[in-house]
TrEMBL record:
Molecular-function GO terms, alphabetical: oxo-acid-lyase activity
Organism: Advenella kashmirensis W13003
One Pfam short name: PEP_mutase
CDD domains: ICL_PEPM
Family matches, as SUPFAM superfamilies: Phosphoenolpyruvate/pyruvate domain (SSF51621)
Upper classification of the organism: Bacteria, Pseudomonadati, Pseudomonadota, Betaproteobacteria, Burkholderiales
InterPro entries for the chain: ICL/PEPM, Pyrv/PenolPyrv_kinase-like_dom, Pyrv_kinase-like_dom_sf
Protein name: Carboxyvinyl-carboxyphosphonate phosphorylmutase
Gene3D superfamilies: Phosphoenolpyruvate-binding domains
Amino acid sequence: MQNPATSLKALLNQKKLIVSPGIFDMVSLKIADQFDFPCLYMTGYGTVASYLGLPDAGLATYSDMVNRVQAFCSATSTPIICDGDTGYGGLLNVAHTVDGYIRAGAAGIQLEDQQFPKKCGHTKGRRVIAARDMAAKIRVAVDARAGRDDFLIIARTDARTSLGLDEALRRADSYLQAGADVLFVESPESREELEAIGRRFDVPLVVNIVEGGKTPQPSAQELEQMGFSLAIHPGLGFLAMGRALESAYGQLKKAGDSVGYTDLADFEMFSRLMGFQKVWDFDDKYKDLETMQ
């Protein structure tokens, strides 16, 4: 079986836009995976919210996140890029995080230059560390993956919001020089800024499309023409889920039952997606043995 990281690196080198949905729990993973996306993205916002019921504001630990990385990656052969926040500490922590994410099966890790505690990239209050300190983290991350060069190091800068686009671009340059494979300039605020990012770099670039966030939403074709290699949609799944649950639970509260509520997945098909077919097949195969007990 091909290493997911190897296949992802090859895809990025084709310089065609990869569209990647955000996954945040095992149900979203299984649903997304049935559509054969070439890559999945483990969203920090959604994962922290679904796993801990907390905001993505530096409250999740390395142990919390690597637990989710291992669970997600063990359930699919599709490459998953996993949010590694700030690396969960200093340089030693960054090395430990990279090694742990590789062992857990991630195809790549996203590391960002925010101060601790970090915050979601499309929310208020983000501050960044010195560019040289982030470049040091990237160098350590590259060294930590030694011998596993297909594992991607994605360097994200959050400097645009507080320090402007020019500083964000300078930082991305320095992170590239430090050894990053993929660059991620978070929260550009116009199409012109997206175009400037695409013109500046001839390496794989990430664009973060958050429905309702700070960045505009060009079409996939437009993003590819701008020079982006990977468009992640981290919030699409949990925002859709939130709206659907509000509707369903609201109906239940209002009516006291779900009679006539039809905006639902088919129960049997959903059960098969969750793996019940294997349970049913097992029961059929060994039903005679059960009667002997």
